[in-house]
Amino acid sequence: MSPRVLYIDDDPGIGRLVQKTLQAGGFEVELAQSGDNGLQLIREKHFDIVALDHHMPGKTGLQVIKEIRALDNPPPVIYVTGSEDSHIAVAALKAGAIDYVWKDVQGHFRELLAKSVQTSLEQERLRRDMEAADAEIRAARDRAELLLKEVNHRVANSLAIVAGLLTLQRHSLTDSSAQHLLDQMSARIMAIAGVHRRLYTSHDVTMVDLKEYLTSLIADIKTAMGDAGRSHPLHLNCAPLSITTDRAVSVGIIVTELVTNAYKYAYPHRTDGDIRVDVDVRDGQAILTVEDDGVGLENAQTSGGTRLGTRVMTSMTSSIGGTLDLTGSAQGTRATLKFPA
User: Fold this and answer.
1) pLDDT tens for residues 269-284?
2) What is the largest CA-CA distance in the chain?
């Protein structure tokens, strides 16, 4: 099908000459002798492109082009002007014209207009192809993000089931050391599940809001410790920080180990005593501290353990390129984790 062109010009003689030139170039051309007439035709019929004269009675071409651009899915517009004032051409382009042609008295503009129509139609085709490609890419990205969220949802649920099975297994055991190991393993699994929970409820499936994640994780630990008869106040102060999924898993496991240890060993003879978790960002580094006011490292009753927790924390710290330092005194224990923010 030949491209359909609407030429708007109040001079019927020039209009017929333009029509003849464009038809010779393979275009189907319809004429309008006023801006309002042209707007009505655009509303009623499909045109691939519009060529619009500047000087017309009632409305100038600049007024008409604004009304054309305000329509739903408007056709591209080429502006035709007999004025040599460059400001008019600039104004037309700012108003939304795709090109402009100077209407000379000798009539050479008709061949230029035919070339401009051909070029503008090709530009419009490329623009629409790019928009369609962009839309397809966005749709594919949205589908991938939706699928990834569903995967994270299923992973979180599966991990929660595994943690539940460990809890059931714990209740069938009488050995306190074995029960303790299963408790630790369950806490680590729930720390990982928490990351996946955050991902399937987040707009960004590649990053985790650390404050939101730690708030949820600490609430889970607090509930678990409360069920075990340990109810020390647990406080979180976290600066705004987003980290990658892998780092969030490692940080969550480390925090779980440190906070759980503080609950179990910091206050062996007291029911009161705070545990504090603080995250700050300085000089491109995240600094996470877990501290208490308990008996300190030397007096903590940790004998008989497998030291698996220490090996886990060492491995997790190495995986995020960080360092972990433990300091203790009679006034308490402080663990400091530093890693690139």
Assistant:
1) 776 789 999 999 999 9
2) 105
75 pLDDT more than 90: yes
Query: Do the Cβ atoms of 61 and 52 come closer than 8 Å?
Result: yes
Domain range list for the chain: 4-136, 230-341
Paired strand residues for 28: 4
Tell me if the pTM is above 0.70.
no
Asked if 65 and 95 count as a contact pair (C-beta separation under 8 A), the reply is yes
For the domain made up of 230-341, the CATH class stated in words is alpha beta
- Mean pLDDT computed over 115-133: 89
Which letter does DSSP use for residue 201 in this model?
T
Structural class in CATH, domain 4-136: alpha beta
Exposure letters 211-230 (e unless 16+ CB within 10 A, then b): bebbeebbeebbebbeeeeb
- DSSP string computed for 5-49: EEEE-S-HHHHHHHHHHHHHTT-EEEEESSHHHHHHHHHHS--SE
Q: What are the strands of the beta sheet with 285-292, ordered from one edge?
A: 234-238, 275-282, 285-292, 332-340, 323-329
In angstroms, how far is CA 265 from the centroid of its own chain? 42
